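Practice problem. Given the sequence and the SMILES for flavin mononucleotide, write out the predicted structure.
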Amino acid sequence: MNDKKFISVGEPHRLLTPGLTLLISTGNEQDDNLFSVAWNMPVRKQPPMVAILCGKRHYSFKLLEKTGEFGINIPDHNLIDEVIGCGKTSGKDITDKFDKFNLTRKKAKIIKAPLVLEAIANLECRIFDIRDMGTSALITAQVLNAVVDEKHFKNNQWIFENGLQLIHHLGGLDFCISNKKIKSTYNS
Ligand SMILES: Cc1cc2nc3c(=O)[nH]c(=O)nc-3n(C[C@H](O)[C@H](O)[C@H](O)COP(=O)(O)O)c2cc1C
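Answer key:
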């Protein structure tokens, strides 16, 4: 442990990520969009609430402000190219990212924004607060409904025995995956 070498880090957020990388779906029947989000976290258990960071210049930001809702779609390793695609292009230039990246709209139960069928989990969220953070906004939202592929989630936990590979963004085109459970032997 003592011979660990420390380096100075230019972008400290790169140490705090990777969390799960998400595809956020926004809009309604008239106009919808998708964008990728690495900066996200749960913020409350009851009622369940989450937070995401959204650039204020993103096309999606206007849709989020207008509709007050969004979908969280959790991709696995099969969707990394779609995640990069949705995160490198803007709805300002592309009218239909679902079509462009061969993703299928799934009707949500409560919100108007479509969900992504190919994702392994979908959460429907209603915005609680939009906090100005300069070039981006911290958006907190209540989760109204959540569904997950039962093959990958049991007893309230992700399970990996059926080949699940969750993706975490390292930067640029690079991701790492979580695909294995380990257990603490801590005994109080
Ligand atoms: C892997 C990945 C993660 C990203 N994470 C975030 C994020 O957490 N917050 C954010 O505002 N933008 C993030 N972006 C950038 C947006 O997804 C990107 O600017 C997107 O083009 C915005 O789309 P829109 O203009 O159609 O809304 C990320 C991009 C990639 C590729």
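Check your answer against the key. Residues 21, 33, 35-39, 53-55, 58-60, 83-84, 87-92, 136, 169 surround flavin mononucleotide (CB under 6 Å).
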